[in-house]
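# nightly structure sweep
# worker-07 picked up a monomer target from the shared queue
# config: single-sequence mode, recycle default, output format = structure tokens
# input follows
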Amino acid sequence: MTKMRSDRRQKILAEVSRLADAAIFGTLSEQYRTCGTPGCRCHGPGPKHGPYLHVVYQGPSGKTAGYYVLDGAQAAIRDGVTAWQTLQSRLRELADLN
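# output follows
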């Protein structure tokens, strides 16, 4: 293995380790909804309530599953899902180097 290839591999391994600590499996889904109040703006042409953030993933049985993300956790969850996507990309790079 060349020195440059070995250095790149070590950088990827370090990044994989960092990303693995933050990764959250799934993709993000934002939903907008109408409420149960008949006179509310959301029942007309006005904006709906939301966005409500959900993490969606394929469960062990192959069925789509997911969960609601509380407002206070949205930034951390977004970062975790981005880390998951980056982790997959780095693992592909590592496989190519191997």
